[in-house]
Amino acid sequence: MAKRFLTRDGRRVGVGDRVWSANHLPWVVRRIGPMSGMPAGSPLWAFMDRDPSFPAQPDLDDTLFMAEEDFPTYVYRSHPSDGGCARAGCRHRPWGAVR
């Protein structure tokens, strides 16, 4: 069975799923596994690439690594909908974004 991580909004996601980081950036989960060179049984990490639907930004990284224990704190399955987006100036509205 494929490994899936729990998000802040209570959904389980795995490889190929699109997610949002708490700073309103979209990502695609590319791999879930231990860091390279770590022995079997080491903590798992999600390795993510910037969602290609989001315009490239010269000052933003194209990759994100997140430990399984931190995933439910910083990653959402859906765009965060607590109203903070508008206050933060977030205007990115691709797939499934909640206004």
CATH architecture: Roll
| Main beta sheet strand tally, sense and closure | 5 strands, antiparallel
Structural class: mainly beta
Helices and strands, in N-to-C order?
EEEEEEHEH
What is the domain total for the residues? 1
Radius of gyration: 14 Å
User: What is the CATH T-level topology?
Assistant: SH3 type barrels
Fraction of residues in β-strands:
25-35%
Strand order, main sheet: write it out: 6-5-4-3-7
Termini separation comes to: 34 Å
Residue-averaged pLDDT, rounded?
81
| Low-confidence sequence ranges | 94-99
CATH class membership: Mainly Beta
Number of strands: 7
The DSSP helix count reads 2
The general outline is globular
Helix content: under 10%
